[in-house]
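Worked example 3. Consider a protein that binds adenosine-5'-diphosphate.
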Amino acid sequence: MLGQFFSPKSVAVVGAAREPGKVGYGVLQNIIDSGFKGRIYPINPKADAVLGLQCYSSIKAVRGKVDLAVLAIPRAAVLSTVAECGRKGVQGIIVLTAGFREVGPEGAALEKEVLSVARQYGIRLLGPNSLGLIDTHTPVNASFAAGMPVRGEISFMSQSGALCTAILDWALKEDLGFAKFISLGNKADVDEINLLDAWAEDPHTRVIISYLEGIGEGRKFMQAARAVTKKKPVVMVKSGVTAAGSRAVSSHTGSLAGSESAYNAAFKQSGVIRARSVEDLFNLSVAFSFQPLPRDSRLAIVTNAGGPGIIATDEAERQGLRLATFARSTIDKLRASLTSTANVYNPIDVIGDARSDRYRVAVDAALADPGVDALVVILTPQAMTEIEATANLVVELSRQYGKTVLASFMGGVRVEPGVRILREGSVPNYEFPEEAVASLGAMYEQRRWIEKPVEQPMSFPVRKEQARRLLVSAAADKRQTLGDVEARGVLTAYGFKVPTAMLARSAEQAIGFAKQIGYPVVLKVVSPEILHKSDVGGVVVGLQNDEEVGDAYETILARVRRFMPKAVVWGVEVQEMVTSGKETIIGLVKDPQFGHMLMFGLGGIYVEVLKDVSFRITPLTLSDAREMISQIRSYPLLAGVRGEKPVDIDAIVDALLRLSQLAEDFPQISELDINPLRVRERGQGAVAVDCRLAFAPDGLVEQVGASGRSPLQEQVAAS
Ligand code: ADP
Ligand code: MG
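Given these inputs, the predicted complex is written out as structure tokens:
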């Protein structure tokens, strides 16, 4: 796939220049220097030859077939050249020229035109504003970057040309092998999704790394990523903020959900490993391309200094790795061969005066232990340390055992010869032990992802029609929100438990209902215009008797008249007081890139301050739901601390999955908050105490007649 770019048989450079320093010169030179074996056609009407190759006056003038055309020409000539390429039968075009979407609306319009001409001829287009691409296996270097990496198994895509050159330079310095290198530029046509699809099948690509500033089609991206991440690791740095944060929100979920949360969720759910920084990206590239994945999470550490060993141990815990417990025989072996002051338990401390022989014993014993999946070897350069000999034995033993081995030879000048040996022996070395352990953490994450069974989203029998009617009648009422009472109707249709409630139109009626429901009760104002009821003093909880109910009824109405004199009030609801359980919040929000996203967190008034919430893109699988609950920091409060009984986690899982189904059924829903969802003790379920919902009436309004009335209005009219 995309063979016209990565393995063309003939390449034309339109705008091949005779002057060194020009893009049209650099790219031609790179193609020649890369050892490209196909035909090369420089195009320049003013020259007979460039860099020793015969020049053509135009693409048209070339007699043979042209697979790929690289455009290094002024912006004004791009459109007509693309058309000319189309007539010539060119299949791929790289537009190096800048000055398109990135400079403003006029550039964007031109970019669109260029794309539409390309599409017309069935041409795939890379860029504009691209640095070009490199394939080390073909080989071809159709870029104007300086230098070409050695052949390897990493493929890199980047939305930033500058980062391309930086990574390339680093690859040259580290002698790190790459398979493909591509600068996406403005992504008018070829984008990250196309490349994931192509590289999933590419036998030369074993590790995919990328730098992206934005992802166009979130759902398609997730699908493409899922298809590749089970086979090869995909590591991404995602930078840049989108405008998503500035959209108007009316829910807690909306205000807590930024595009960052969406990207994190999307990456997690499609097995993409997110690098936190470019440095992290480097670290992980080396780890994934040099070493096999660990079979499991049991880590051994060998060190000649205590401190770095502790740092590594701490990081292991953060990464969800376990420190291996050695077999008896391993400990005996270590005790017999190491000095008496050495620590023979994990982390093995061979002590500062260790020469390579002690390292050999320790590394060998650790790798031989069946309870060890991975090893980190730490070395600090002390007076007796045999740096090169130690590096050599680490390489030798890592090959012999085939387990994951990473190193941290700390320091600079003195360890450099050792670092070189490690690199040549495919043992990644990190300046600091925590980086080595963090890289191992990502490798273990990949292992878990590969082994995680593929799940289908769950489906419950629900009363979809009932929910639809509620939305339709609100839409007919020219509303785009459902308050507590109506939203609860939607929830019950989807199998949620809600408190018993009755709508009162007078204090006497409220007292009557309170008696029926049983004390204590809660009174709440019901108005289509009041979505945040407490804000106007519209909620009174813990009412114990008739008198309190009567008073609360009048108080609520008085407050509402004062704070929102124009609001239409449908009545005051008398609600069963749900006293047991912990308050959680679950919600739904629509992300512009990824669509519906669910949120979970501990509820109450501190949600927005603590931001202790988790997100997943819908549809949710069972394990997505479980993970998003256990992921929050305050999870121990739900699992039970200090003798408290655990809450009904399964009821939260159930609620999340049902909400996910609601989101899939009604793409119109833009935001939904259940706050609080009161979760009782294990086995006792959860109650959706309060809910509000916002939706876009797309496709709903046509379905009602002019007299569409919400069930609530019917109830109000009838009373
Ligand atoms: P709003 O969010 O519109 O202000 P709520 O219905 O959520 O109104 O009520 C505010 C708070 O009152 C809730 O977060 C909850 O702590 C408490 N509360 C409301 N209804 C009940 C109920 N039926 N049982 C127990 N607590 C309740
Ligand atoms: Mg509430």
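Take a moment to read the result before moving on. The two ends are 67 Å apart (CA to CA). The chain is about 40% helix and 20% strand.
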